[in-house]
UniProtKB/TrEMBL annotation:
PANTHER family: ARABINOSE-BINDING PROTEIN-RELATED, DIACETYLCHITOBIOSE BINDING PROTEIN DASA. It comes from the Bacteria. Keywords: Signal. It comes from Paenibacillus monticola. This is Extracellular solute-binding protein. The lineage of its organism: Bacteria, Bacillati, Bacillota, Bacilli, Bacillales. The keyword rRNA-binding does not apply. Residues 1-31 form the signal peptide. InterPro entries: Bact_solute-bd_prot1, SBP. It holds the Pfam family SBP_bac_1.
Length: 466
């Protein structure tokens, strides 16, 4: 079992903003058709059992989560159980929701099921004792989280939540431009392949130049995914810090990422210059949909937009490729992922019933909800396709999206092991970002950038030790 460590510092700290995006489409339930066999946890309760009311605390809005339809479906399955929705933010604001959740937890309010929007929020609430370990329930049901789900939610060798939705990162491709260059839509590729594609897709000069790709970060300590490209597709240690709180910047793949970014911008001249991104405040949607860049590495919250919207129309065909690998022999599909962490409240008086709901919601319930791709690994390609059909139906030109490449990429994607962000993560990000800027603007070489980043991050870690 993969070990995760909840840092003591996680009890108080900066909450990471969730990359939430409400998925479009109708509330129909076509995605649930052809459902697989129910997991053990979805077996009905004894009809003679007492009525149970569960309170579900969530930041998810009705528009984004289709709650009424979903909870009605569960009550039809479990007539003795009513799930009461406690809406923590009408806007789906995760920071507002976390504040209200913490206040409720400190009160005598009944709490049964809790939803956390990111790994930091999940780890912090576990450290505060808000979530019940689910290991005994899971052992009784006879499955392993790391096998049944594409996100492994272990913290300190225990499971406190099951993952709901699944938003992996992928590569959006201008298929018209790929066709012009005689390039196939990749189904399994490396960063070397990605760089080669970018070079071949780059055309023109000056203001009319079209770049092979656009990297939307890092900037101001944010969008730091773009500085660990060759770290993020590893099963373990995919972050700047390790699970024990030490620096991970001695990972050769950190330096290799810097070298990749430097080569693509300076030598190949196939990626939009960093200086342009910063000075012109470029937007990734505009760069891709205006056909200024042929490839865009981004999160699958874009599913709701890749078919075009009123605000950003689509005038070409779009395909999707998986997050590139470091080496051809590496495991395919490992990529940054955002999810919902669905937990049983430690103070719940109906823990078994709450767990049964959590297990159902994170498996068949995701199909019933029909709003997001589930993290449940037992979901079939056909079921994912049904959800994608619903999502794309909310766009202007779904026919321009290569649906097969999108579905295949989503099905193949999986998350690296969770390493909860440190409470001082923002300081770490800012330091690395600043050293990268010096390098990409020509003020220091790669080796100096790695050394300075390591030195600064080690000082930040030491300063935050208690």
């Amino acid at each position: 079992m993969m070990k995760r460590k909840v840092w003591a510092g996680a009890i108080s700290g900066v909450l990471m903003l969730s990359l939430l995006s409400g998925c479009g489409g109708s509330n129909n339930n076509n995605a649930a058709n052809g459902n697989t066999a129910s997991p053990d946890a979805t077996k009905g309760t004894n009809a003679a059992a007492d009525k149970i009311n569960l309170r579900l605390y969530t930041y998810g809005t009705e528009e984004a989560y289709n709650w009424k339809h979903t909870l009605d479906a569960y009550q039809a399955l479990e007539p003795n159980v009513t799930v009461e929705l406690v809406q923590l933010s009408e806007k789906g604001d995760t920071q507002e929701a976390f504040k209200k959740l913490d206040l409720e937890a400190a009160s005598s309010a009944q709490m049964d099921v809790l939803m956390f929007s990111d790994a930091a929020g999940y780890a912090q609430r576990v450290a505060l004792g808000m979530a019940e370990p689910l290991d005994d329930f899971i052992a009784k049901d006879g499955y392993k989280v790391e096998e049944d789900y594409k996100v492994d939610t272990h913290l300190d060798d225990k499971v406190y939540a099951l993952p709901g939705k699944f938003n992996p990162w992928y590569v959006l491709l201008n298929k018209n431009q790929l066709d012009e260059a005689g390039l196939a839509v990749p189904t399994d590729w490396t960063w070397d392949d990605f760089a080669d594609y970018a070079k071949k897709l780059t055309t023109g000069e000056g203001a009319q130049k079209r770049y092979g790709t656009y990297f939307h970060g890092p900037q101001a300590g944010g969008w730091m995914e773009f500085l660990k490209l060759k770290m993020e597709n590893q099963p373990q240690n995919a972050e700047y810090l390790k699970a024990d709180g030490t620096s991970n910047l001695d990972d050769p793949n950190f330096k290799a990422t810097l070298e990749l970014r430097l080569r693509m911008e300076k030598e190949d001249q196939s990626s939009v210059p960093y200086a342009d991104m910063i000075s012109q405040k470029l937007a990734y949607r505009t760069q891709f949909f205006n056909e200024s860049a042929s490839m865009l590495l981004i999160g699958s919250w874009m599913n709701t937009e890749i078919g075009g919207t009123d605000k950003v129309p689509l005038n070409f065909n779009v395909a999707v490729a998986p997050f590139p690998k470091n080496n051809a022999a590496d495991e395919i599909g490992l990529t940054p992922v955002t999810t919902d962490y669905v937990a049983v409240a430690a103070k719940s008086k109906n823990k078994e019933a709450a767990y049964k709901f959590v297990r159902w919601y994170t498996t068949e319930g995701q199909l019933v909800q029909g709003k997001n791709i589930p993290a449940w690994s037992k979901v079939t390609s056909d079921q994912v396709e049904g959800i994608i059909d619903t999502i794309l139906a909310g766009t202007k030109n779904p026919e321009k999206v290569d649906k097969k490449s999108l579905v295949d990429t989503l099905v193949a994607s999986k998350a690296s092991a969770i390493i909860p962000p440190a409470t001082y993560q923002a300081e770490v990000n800012k330091a690395i970002n600043e050293e990268y800027e010096k390098m990409i603007l020509g003020n220091q070489d790669v080796d100096t950038t790695v050394k300075n980043s390591q030195d600064r991050v080690n000082k930040i870690i030491a300063a935050n030790k208690k």
